[in-house]
Amino acid sequence: MGISSLFFQALVYSLVIIVIIASLLALMFGGSYLFAHAMIWPLYAIVVFVAIVLFFIGRLFFVEKRDLEQAKINLTKLLQLSEKNRLEAITEKDKTITVINTLTDGLIIINERNEITSINPEAEKIFELDANKLFNKPLQFLVNFPKAVPVAFVLNSGLSNILRREIQLSKDFVIEMSVAPFNLGKNKVGHLVSLHDVSREKMVEKMKTEFVSLAAHQLRTPLTVVNWSMTALLKGDFGKLSDKQSEVIDDTLHNNDRLITLVNNLLNTTRIEEGKYLYETKMADMREIVNFVIGGYGSDTEKKKIKIEFKSPESFPSTMVDIDKMKIAVQNIVDNAVKYSNEGGKVIISLTSDEKNITFKLQDFGMGIPKTQQVNIFKKFFRGDNAAKMDTAGSGLGLFMTQNIINAHGGKIWFESEEGSGSSFYFSIPILVS
Ligand code: ADP
């Protein structure tokens, strides 16, 4: 409360008190005269009424003035606060803009109506465009800039379907695009599209792939020659061998076979990576493919006394399949089941179908896959800790290839596994007729 309003309040109250005292004094001294003229009560009433009215007028005036002053103070404080907040918001906005502009990755911000609200300088550079021409324009406008066309097509296919995608913008320029929705509280307010240049990583990867491919090619021929020679020796083509000699050569042949498998796997992997793993599909019966693969098992399953069960269904639809590749896929799954089962184990294989798909299932009761490692199972060169201890010779390429083969047939592969209890591997492929 201000000094002036206090003074005013004192003044009003003093005035009221003076009026009351004055009227009482008038009553005391002039009372007899007034009594005599019977005027005392109306006069008294008028004095009290005037005093009350004065009191209320003063109070009303005072309270209103005080409230007004208080409101003025509050308003000033509010204005100061909102100005402070405004300045803070501007500073924060400037900071965010600076961060976005100095990012070494490209960034596009899209609002909830799929309009472009911001493009940072790196994204401008990547797409060779002028951000001002796209400000508040629908996402589709990106197609007007030739460099951005591949990205525009992917983005226009639906933002929520994209998480991370590699996109080739030109021969030596590959970006990794990530799309993330961003929320304010519980409301979705748009998407952030970040663009990371992975050209260098891709180039190094390509060089590695080419090197592995070359090395594997060079290794295959001598290994095949060793295989022929060992087989000829074992058959006695160069004279009879002693038991010990046969045993040593048999062992060498077995290891050489493993090397050939590894080299073939490496070659297939490099072909998959180079996009050269061509598929030649023709109508085939999956029952025959499974039977062919199982028929090839001899020594390994015998040594470990593992029983492979396959109840071939009576009638089964044929479908378009690359037979050789499908054999590799099925073989990798069966191989693993045999490798990672304990002695005396059992492997159960089944084939089922509905109108649209064929589903393969293999169940084993072996070592299983630790929960924490299950996400990595289809990655190139990944081997589970327990598997690497049990079988030291694996390469971690089998399931990577299998997944690629199944995907190339338009199918999907998955598994369930519990460490110590066993695993079930499934894949399904669509029924396609030529
Ligand atoms: P490799 O068998 O040569 O190690 P794969 O790509 O075929 O490579 O398999 C990758 C990993 O998946 C294996 O190392 C193993 O840890 C796990 N795995 C695959 N199949 C099984 C299975 N049936 N039982 C237990 N682990 C398995």
Percent helix, as a range, is: 40-55%
Compute the separation of the termini in Å. 94 Å
Assembly type of the chains comes to single chain
* Count of strand segments: 12
Bound molecules: adenosine-5'-diphosphate
As laid out across the biggest beta sheet, the strand order is 2-1-5-4-3
Structural class, from helix and strand content?
A: alpha+beta
What is the makeup of the main sheet? 5 strands, antiparallel
Whole-angstrom Rg: 44 Å
The dominant shape is: elongated
Order of helices and strands: HHEEHHEEEHHEHHEEHEEHHEE
Mean pLDDT: 88
What is the overall number of helices?
11
Low-confidence stretches: none
Strand content: 15-25%
Compact summary:
The protein contains eleven helices and twelve strands.
Explain how this protein is built:
The structure is a single chain. The chain has 434 residues and is α+β, with helices and mostly antiparallel strands. Helices cover 53% and strands 19% of the residues. It has eleven helices and twelve strands. The protein has helices spanning 3-36, 40-102, 121-127, 149-156, 199-235, 243-273, 286-295, 299-304, 323-339, 385-390, 398-408, and strands at residues 106-111, 116-119, 164-170, 173-184, 187-197, 282-284, 307-310, 319-321, 346-353, 357-364, 412-418, 422-430. The strands form three sheets. A five-stranded antiparallel β-sheet has the order 2-1-5-4-3. Helix 1 (3-36) packs antiparallel against helix 2 (40-102), helix 6 packs across helix 11 and helix 9 (323-339) runs antiparallel to helix 11. The termini are far apart.
